[in-house]
Amino acid sequence: MKRGKDKKRAGQVSVFIIIAIVVVVGIVGVYSFQSYQASQSDKYFSSSELKPTVDSITMSIVGCRDSSVKNSLELIGVQGGFYNKPQNAFTVGKFFVPYYYYLGNVVNSPDATMISKEIGKSVDKDFESCVKEMSSSYTSFTITQTTPKSTVKILKDFVEVTVDSQITITKENNNKVINLIKDTKSYKSALFDIIDVAKFITDSHKTDPRMMCISCIGDKADEAGLYVDFYDVSTDSSLVIVSENFTSSEPYSFEFMNKYGADDLKYKPAATEIPTPGKVN
Length: 281
What we know:
Mean pLDDT: 84
Structural class: alpha+beta
Number of strands: 12
Largest sheet: 6 strands, mixed
Radius of gyration: 29 Å
Order of helices and strands: HHEEEHEEEEEEHHEEE
Low-confidence stretches: 22-38, 273-281
Helix content: 40-55%
Number of helices: 5
Number of domains: 3
Shape: elongated
């Protein structure tokens, strides 16, 4: 009787082994078929007729990535580190400038981590729009992309950006996939030091607006090769611009505003107080 049970158990094991082999063979078959398809697509897009156009599309996609980062850095600078408008902000046309100091309180003081996320939001939106617009120029191809999700790191002297987006070029049932996530790129930037100077100015207000050290602000900006400008927007408000002119052919500006109440209005920095090289226009 025991021998019969052993045979039955052995038979069950044999069935499981057969099923496992079938599954493995099936997976290998699917993988081999997909590899074959990818290989055939590579040959298809490498033809002398298509390769120049495919290379042009690829370069355009990379160009979209680079221009989106540039546009986003500029936008985030103008909007004081924000992509989405915060509660306390001054609207200027389609843009806004956030208040960092507002009637005796520090209401906005974004750090590098928060600003990195805001840059990422801007890059995602701009990149998606750029690829869509670019795709309309290549009517004989179908170009699709996954929703971008960028990772941004603000480091000393540069900003590191990875755009997580997969773009698929399709023609006659052949697909070519471009994964930008594999390509992390660094862009020269003084944003790390700019954020540090902006925080120094804001912290001065937070500690005591009556004790703001204007010469200290100038010295700190000078150490990083930056300029600090205070502009009178109204009798109780100042626009602060921290800028530099060495990371690109055009000056880069980071802007925020301060609004003073009756108690500290007399301590509002005048537009002529920042010494050279924290120059004032």
